[in-house]
Amino acid sequence: MATARTKRKGERRPAPELPIARVYVDVGLPHLDRTFDYQVADSQHDDAVAGCRVRVRFAGQLVDGYLMERAETTDHTGRLAYLERVVSPEPVLSPEIATLARAVADKYAGTMVDVLRLAIPPRHARVESEVVSHTQDVVSCVPAAVSCAQDAVSHGWDGYQHGDALLTALTAGSRARAVWQALPGEDWPARLAEAATAVAGSGKGTVIVVPDYRDVARLHAACAERLGEQQVVALSADLGPAERYRRWLRARRGAARVVVGTRAAMFAPMTDLGLLVVWDDGDDLHAEQRAPYPHVRDVLVQRAHLSGASLLVAGFARTAEAQLLVESRWAHPVTPDRASLRARAPRVTGFGEDFDLARDEAARAARLPAVAFEAARSALKADAAVLVQVPRRGYVPSLACGSCRTPARCRRCAGPLAVSAGQQDQQDTARSPVCRWCGVPESRFRCPACGSVRLRAQVIGARRTAEELGRAFPGVPVRTSGGKEVLAGVDSSAALVIATPGAEPVADGGYGAALLLDGWALLGRQDLRAGEETLRRWMTAAALVRPGEQGGRVVVGADAALTPVQALIRWDPAWHAERELAERRELGFPPAVRMAGLEGEPKPLAAAMDELTLPDSAEVLGPVPVLETRPEPGRPERERVLLRVPNADGRALAASLAALQASRGARKEPEQVRVRLDPLSPI
Length: 683
Ligand SMILES: [Zn+2]
Ligand SMILES: [Zn+2]
What we know:
This protein has 21 helices and 28 strands.
């Protein structure tokens, strides 16, 4: 009879001589970040399996917990309490995820239960009972689906150096670690689906993490086409709690060979894990916003390391972090071969600030350069859609050298120089700019690149509205994508598609042209990753135009002499990433070093700093006032301290921050000091 108690493959029932349960209690306190022992009553014996949810009494309260393992004896002296209740015999926490969660908690100075909260969706009792019979149907049809996967030998990886070797390794079930740079115009969901199919053929499973739900939908379709709907689970944050738990359980119960999902899927359960993939690892959406703030790419690197699975870090562009994986030989580069790249790369033209405006009057009003206007007009004439990328508003501009535009950096710590909020409006740099990291004013700026003493606030670019752009092309339909209304796809007939970076819809058959206007607005942001991030945004948009000789044109609004523009014109993100990483090594920026940020009100922050025992190599920068992007009246002023250590001391730094939080927690310190390891862009 099929019931919830039916023993599933690979699960072991606890032996009766293990009367102790070790439990992580969900109280969220850093000084209690360990297991506590409880007794298992005879009646609970069968249900109290490793990985199940339990209720226990803790410090007089009933709290949730996860049973980590059963044990024979305890070190606890005195009477042990019994488990209050086994919530469900469903082993939601697999041994693999338990190991990973502990490692992630340690890496980011967080707690195990914080990570488990990100990893395991809340329980839905009805769903748990309903899925059982369904699952067994699915499990019974796995062999058929997998054998069909083995027939799928043809793939589209032949345009890449080492592409064939990668697929061969995945098919054979051996370990491969690669940084994959996709060709412009690449149908990347199809390529990833081929990789997942190869892995399924070896009897293993794949977890793929992408930035947003539109990517999930494309990948799900591509994987389902090759492996069958039943073999693929799609997880994303927008699902309701019941549906999310239903799908998640299918993955946990081993009913699918592929999980595709957004951020939280980095912890998706998978039996016989064979391959982990992160697509577009530079996207901000891969940085978790809840404690302990893990990053998808870094978690997957750790997960691949711990589990022995293969890893693919993929995208059109390449981050400095991915470059570090390549340079340290942890991963192999899989890059387009010359011939394929020549055939596929779009023609890119750059224009600086002193461009020729179009003669057309409406185009002049929209401040469209002649070259952009012409590219758009000829694409529209050929009945093709034109993509116009316009940056979002509200970036904080950075300071740069007044003559050569090298970003202005602090002489002591290489942090970014900035003028205070009051000064920003006046464009007046007469008062000294201040380092955003160490807080030291710079009264005698001198550009290290050209010797100039002039400073300027970076140009934020001409802001063009959809209406202005539309008037330049009368009679052409205008569609916009961005903010709350993001289009997934458009057809490729003549239309103007205006999108903010990251919201560009895919055009069936490709765009006839892409205008990446206002490149300065992206490049001039006060962000350590501004160059890398700009190139990534450009490449992701430019990859959507029709490839090849007769393909679409790309016009980019930034000086062709700049490194990111050069990299775009040559379509060489690896070259850019190499330079980027070299520069970060020189300046002491992540990932060449490890950083942490501590943020709080001035008094508790200072007390926390006094208490903190840092590795000898640590450099303390600040405190400086926190720049509020959206200031809230009445909110107390907050400050931030940055800590910087060589990578070799990264673990020691995390350990001292964890110790700090544990002792503050034990004393029940009321004021919060937020700790964040590897902040995405410490400004
Ligand atoms: Zn200069
Ligand atoms: Zn400084």
